[in-house]
Design a protein that fits this description.
- With 478 residues, the protein is an alpha/beta fold.
- Helices cover 27% and strands 21% of the residues.
- Strand 10 (273-279) and strand 11 (285-292) form a beta hairpin.
Length: 478
């Protein structure tokens, strides 16, 4: 934040059109007190002083609670006036053995009295610094706490301010200094105070305005810092999530690849759906798509773990039932709850691209389209259970003939479970097949086909889909 330009002096009371400022050696003058009040105490400012003892008539006596400072042995009095509630509470930290207040009477913006508590040292300040304190007035002439270390901090003129900022990092701080030491006040602002004022030129109007300004500036600074921290975390999360999305390994393969991914979570880039495509050294192309039940960050993290495990197992030479059995073991060890499961569809396309093996673990069957034929779903009669449901389950591998030219679309159930119109009817696999057939007839392919499919599903649903959506498309041209 920019450091405010130091003021040469505060505005004297005579220039503000007010009565003369209260002197350091005396409290509020009798002329300043409203009619009907006792000269000993002006009700427009409620002071809480460890040494203060004043008597009031019994018929107007305020509620009083008294406590003793364990660190100093001093007694402080907390006075509250039910007839004049306060909006702002100020903690004054000043070293004044004579007990003469240096702060004049204060009113908030609504004309209500500002409550003032007084502490003579940092120990008392720590006890009086409750959540209802809005601003701290710190006299820079306050004695520095003794450390006995002999280091540079013992000779730091602003050491007491640094201690207060550590003690109250969320509170606004106003530094009080003498009019002959403006440079020290500017240094206090540079260290972290919201502003500085000259203690020998204070008046109620100036100080009240400065307190309100300091409180609002602290709130603004805190809000800006939280906003910046939130943006930074969001950027880091987006970078992390982008890094967790797969990079297909298809070098040397004639197949074309396209994918679309839309997480169901608001403001997220990654959901519980996952996919991957790799080509092994023998020329076989392996593709996979899966869905972890649920939509939260834990499910997204588990989906990433399963995808990475699938890639590692595939590159290690595992396939079909052996691979899915090992993947189920990974799921059982990594899931946070025994009821969490995952569906999965895995295909392995032969090096010549004309046939493929298909394994389904509770997942919708892929969609195959070929020139001159209507798009259709691949067989799913031998669909095995989802991963994590049945210990020792088996997942048969089916052989599928693809032909010389084809497109194979793998998808998660988020694509088919959206509603159609305002009723309860869902799109379903049959509705998706008809939609894709029409789009293929219009000449759409690759990225355009996937984009049009996802957009139309969203439009039919009347807005964003509740579930994650992942779609993978593999094409082979003659």
């Amino acid at each position: 934040m920019p450091v405010p330009v130091p003021r040469q002096r505060a505005i004297p009371a005579v220039e503000c059109g007010q009565a003369p400022a209260a002197s350091p050696d005396s409290g509020p003058s009798k002329e300043q007190a409203p009619p009907g009040t006792y000269p000993a105490e002006n009700p427009t400012t409620r002071r809480e002083n460890p040494t203060e003892k004043r008597e009031k008539p019994t018929d107007t006596s305020p509620d009083t609670s008294t406590g003793t400072d364990a660190g100093t042995g001093r007694t402080h009095t907390d006075r509250t006036q039910s007839a004049a509630p306060t909006n702002l509470t100020v903690l004054l930290i000043e070293d004044d053995p004579a007990g003469s207040p240096i702060v004049p009477d204060l009113l908030d913006q609504a004309g209500k009295p500002i409550r003032v508590r007084t502490a003579r040292n940092l120990t008392e300040a720590g006890r009086l610094l409750t959540d209802d304190v809005h601003c701290i007035l710190l006299d820079l002439a306050l004695s520095t706490p003794a450390h006995g270390t002999g280091d540079a901090e013992d000779h730091d003129e602003l050491a007491v301010l640094r201690h207060v900022l550590e003690l109250a990092p969320r509170h606004a701080v106003l530094a009080l200094t003498s009019s002959s030491d403006a440079e020290r006040g500017a240094e206090a602002v540079a260290v972290g105070a919201q502003d500085y004022l000259f203690r020998d030129e204070l008046d109620g109007r100036l100080l009240s305005r400065a307190i309100r300004y300091a409180v609002e500036r602290k709130r603004s600074d805190s809000a800006e810092r939280r906003l910046a921290e939130g943006r930074l975390r969001a950027q880091e999360n987006r970078r992390l999530e982008r890094g967790l999305l797969p990079t297909p390994l298809l070098a040397g393969s004639p197949l074309r690849f396209a994918a679309r991914y839309r997480p169901g979570r608001s403001r997220a880039l990654l959901g519980g759906d996952f996919y991957d495509v790799v080509r092994t050294p023998d020329g076989t192309v392996h593709a996979m798509i899966g869905d972890v039940c649920g939509h939260g960050p834990d499910e997204a993290a588990l989906g990433v773990e399963l995808r990475i495990a699938w890639r590692a197992l595939t590159l290690a030479g595992l396939c079909g039932d052996e691979l899915l059995g090992t993947l189920q073991q990974v799921l059982e060890h990594e899931r946070s709850d025994d009821e969490i499961f995952a569906t999965l569809c895995a295909v392995d396309i032969s090096p010549d691209g004309r046939r493929a093996g298909l394994c389904l673990a509770g997942h919708p069957s892929p969609l195959l389209s070929r020139p001159g034929e209507p798009a259709r779903l691949l067989p799913y009669d031998n669909n095995g259970p989802a991963l994590g449901l049945l210990p020792g389950a088996r997942w048969p591998r089916m052989q599928v003939e693809l032909g010389a030219e084809w497109s194979l679309m793998l998808y998660t159930d988020g694509l088919i479970e959206g509603h159609v119109g305002e009723g309860r009817e869902r799109l379903g696999q049959d509705g998706m097949v008809e939609m894709v057939r029409r789009q293929l007839a219009e000449g759409l392919a690759g990225e355009e086909l996937l984009r049009a499919t996802v957009n139309e599903v969203r439009e039919l649903n009347g807005g964003e889909l509740a579930d994650d959506v992942a779609v993978v498309l593999l094409d082979r041209t003659a």
